[in-house]
Amino acid sequence: MSMRPTRRGYAVVALVLAALLAGGVFGARALDAVVLPGVVALVAAAIQLRRTPVPDLARTLPPADVAGTTGTVTLDVRGDRPSPVTVRDRLPAGVTAVDRPRERGGGSTEAVVDAAVGGDPVTYELVPQRRGEHVVGPATVVVTDVLGLLERSTVVDRRDTLVAFPRIGTLPGSLGAALQATYHSRATTQRDEFDDLREYVRGDALRDIHWKSSARHDELMVQEFADRVDPERVTVAAGVDAGTSAGATDGDVATTRGGAGASAADTPADRMADAAATVCVSLVRGGASVTLTTPSGSVDAAPGRIRPALRHLAVAAGGRVPTVDADVIVVADGDTVSVRFDGREHRLEGRVGDVVSLQAVSDPVDTPRGRPDDVVTDRDDAVVSGGASARGVAPEGSGGSGHTSPDGSERGDAD
To answer: For the chain, how far is it from start to end, CA to CA, in angstroms?
Structure first.
């Protein structure tokens, strides 16, 4: 906690000093006319600030969303005595305030907001530029006396973590259609592998009833299939090409607890995360469950439960593609991202997708009707629709120029 003059206070101090000099030249009357009122005002301001209780601060961050999406931060300044204050909320490198950010050292900035102790909460907007965990705080609360002569700064060491998901784009028409066709074909094929018949049990799907056998046995008979282990689950593995330099794959996630790393340029690991997020969202919206594996671990996603995968990708580090038997493999190198499945390779140039908000995709929450409210519906077209980056993936249905790589694999480069 520190106290210092404001600009107005410095002006009063300068006036008092000038009056002292004038008093030495022209007599003590200058002291009575200027010095005493100025000193009294400064002393009164200091006493007021010392008696003002130290305020507390509560910060509410916006929910996790894709990098580049504007979010609103709410600040509530609490204290025993109402007074006007200025809050300087520290933002890490890689996160910027929308309205007139104040620069700090190390690439970080401050959001400056006027508030009142015990008054209504105030807000400001920020934008995380990269995926990752960004620690916001501490905040500095500046209290000024009623005359505006002195200010007291108090650091409120409250820190909150803002999570930014990878950017989500739209797969080119050819790639998106091929991915969905492979998934649906795989699920249908697995269900066609008939194994046995058994008696119907309450809760069995009507589509599994074998009507001819049921008529012959005079009771409902249900078909069983050879592979009953979630035929609608797709496994996705993502990583960075082994030939990419280690410096571009290790430690390049914007986990900005100390501000390091957040201001780095787009890395292969970022492109991997963007592409993997786009693939997972596309599959989930098509009705599939997904098991995603990256160098940082594994996570499951399903219709209505996409955020766990996005949160995992927000902090996933670069590294070699995990050695797992995956249906879809996403690999990033220095310039491109390849998506491999069904024996073919599709290559995407540049970054995957524009910034698209996830407002329609949230974690399940129990509702009065007892069902999750995170069901992916037509509203979720906003998740992977809209114009994608000219450097990344084209909008759905716009297609991509098909090419054949030297090894004979298909190339679906985005326009």
So the answer is: 56
Give the pLDDT confidence of 54-83 residue by residue, as tens digits: 899 999 999 999 998 999 999 999 988 888
Per DSSP, what are the bridge partners of residue 209? 222
Residues 112 and 243 in one domain: no
Cβ distance 175 to 398 under 8 Å? no
Please name the residues in contact with 38: beta carbons below 8 A apart, sequence gap of 6 or more: 12, 13, 15, 16, 19
Helix spans in 265-366 (H): 268-285, 307-315
Is residue 352 a part of any domain in this protein? Answer: yes
Q: Is residue 391 part of a domain?
A: yes
Using an 8 Å Cβ cutoff, are 91 and 125 in contact?
no
Q: Is residue 158 part of a domain?
A: yes
> Is 235 in the same domain as 329?
yes
Q: Are 173 and 397 in contact (CB under 8 A)?
A: yes
- Three-state SS at 80: coil
Decide: residue 40, CB within 10 A, 0-12 exposed, 13-18 middle, 19+ buried.
exposed
Q: Output the six-digit token pair for 138.
A: 């501490």
Same domain flag for 285 and 177: yes
Q: Would you say 324 and 333 are in contact if contact means Cβ atoms under 8 Å apart?
A: no
Q: Sign of torsion, CA 394 399 402 405?
A: positive
| Amino acid letter, residue 159 | R
Question: Domain span at residue 6?
Answer: 2-51
The SS3 assignment for 87 reads strand
My answer on whether 25 and 129 are in the same domain is no
Question: Residue 374's pLDDT is what?
Answer: 38
- Residue recorded with tokens 């499951």: 300
In this structure, the answer to whether residues 32 and 124 fall within a common structural domain is: no
Condensed to tens digits (0 to 9), the pLDDT of residues 186-242 reads 555 554 455 678 888 876 778 778 888 888 888 888 877 654 444 568 999 999 987
Q: In Å, what is the CA distance from 75 to each residue of 59, 87, 140, 236, 261?
A: 5, 9, 12, 40, 27
The total number of structural domains that make up the chain: 3
Q: Encoding tokens for residue 9?
A: 């206070």
pTM: 0.70
Length of the chain, in residues: 415
Same domain (yes/no): 237, 329: yes
Looking at residue 147, which CATH number applies to its domain?
2.60.40.10
